[in-house]
């Protein structure tokens, strides 16, 4: 049985959003924000940046979410000093999570079947990365439900 997050992921996939966009949309949902520009920008990360040979959109979307919480977004802001460590933790976790598929690229995860996400592999990674991003943020004193103030 799917929880609310799993149902939301299926709904977004059914509406044509790719993995990177789904990760971003779930984070925006939690923040209670809309940001179509960010969602559109995340589409550039879909399907391994277009050819399945690039990094998985689940991973790159999760990196965007960490940056959303800890990155520099205005002239007056500074990047949180913990962001590089958080990104490293995400990368290490993702490498371990995708080891059974032979690598972290979209093509590795899809077993060379580029063009259509694999429901159980991609869905499982989407669900797991959401929990992992929340854990990383919390461990570094950032609340996933409270982003930086918008200017």
Structure description:
By secondary structure, this protein is an all-alpha fold. The protein has one domain. The protein contains eight helices and no strands. Helix 2 runs antiparallel to helix 3 and helix 5 runs parallel beside helix 8. The longest helix has 21 residues. The radius of gyration is 15 Å and the shape is globular. The termini are far apart.
Short overview:
By secondary structure, this protein is mainly α. Helix content is 60%, strand content 0%. The protein contains eight helices and no strands.
Question: Could you give the topology of this structure?
Answer:
Blueprint lengths: L3 H11 L4 H13 L4 H7 L3 H4 L7 H14 L12 H16 L7 H4 L9 H21 L12
Helix pairs in contact: 1-2, 2-3, 2-5, 2-8, 5-6, 5-8, 6-8
Descriptors:
8 helices; mainly alpha; single chain
Count of structural domains: 1
The geometry reads as globular
Structural class call reads mainly alpha
**Strand tally, please?**
0
> Count of DSSP helices?
8
Q: Helices and strands, in N-to-C order?
A: HHHHHHHH
Mean of residue pLDDT?
A: 89
The fraction of residues in strands falls at: under 5%
């Amino acid at each position: 049985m799917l929880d609310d997050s799993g149902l939301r992921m299926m709904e977004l996939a059914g509406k044509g959003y790719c993995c990177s966009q789904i990760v971003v949309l779930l984070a925006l949902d939690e923040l209670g924000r809309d940001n179509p520009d960010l969602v559109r920008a995340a589409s550039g990360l879909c399907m391994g940046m277009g050819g399945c040979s690039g990094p998985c959109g689940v991973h790159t979307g999760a990196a965007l979410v960490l940056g959303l919480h800890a990155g520099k977004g205005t002239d007056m802001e500074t990047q949180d000093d913990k962001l590089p460590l958080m990104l490293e933790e995400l990368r290490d976790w993702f490498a371990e999570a995708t080891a059974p598929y032979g690598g972290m690229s979209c093509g590795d995860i899809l077993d060379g079947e580029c063009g259509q996400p694999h429901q159980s592999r991609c869905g499982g990674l989407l669900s797991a990365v959401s929990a992992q991003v929340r854990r990383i943020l919390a461990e570094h004193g950032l609340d996933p439900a409270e982003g930086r103030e918008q200017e």
